[in-house]
Fold this sequence. Notes:
Blueprint: E1 4-6, E2 9-11, E3 17-22, H1 27-30, E4 33-38, E5 45-50, E6 56-58, E7 66-71, E8 76-81, E9 90-97, H2 98-103, E10 112-114, E11 118-122
Parallel strand pairs: 2-11
Antiparallel strand pairs: 1-3, 3-8, 4-5, 4-9, 5-6, 7-8, 9-10, 9-11
Amino acid sequence: VQLQASGGGLVQPGRSLRLSCAASGSILAANAVGWYRQAPGKQRELVAAISSGRMTKYTESVKGRFTISRDNAQNTVYLQMNSLKPEDTAVYYCNAGRTTAQAMGILYYGVDYWGKGTQVTVSS
């Protein structure tokens, strides 16, 4: 099973991007899904997460700017990123399953899927 992350690119500070994480079947609908990012020289961090019941969690630095949502009919989870800053520059990854569930405090020891990253660069 592979998750497909897309939507990255080069944008100026203050602009917006929307990332998409897609998968076949009901993998995303049945699991907690999270967006993570990793900047050069830094550890991967959780940016935003959404449970199967649509509970959400955000890292402090993106609250009020980023919104995670899911469209189960389209088997897709989105990350709307507004008011982008240079410090948002990173490779963004999506995860479905155990890693994100545990990050949200949900007891789950099942599947754990990662997508290949998509680069987001915020620069003038």
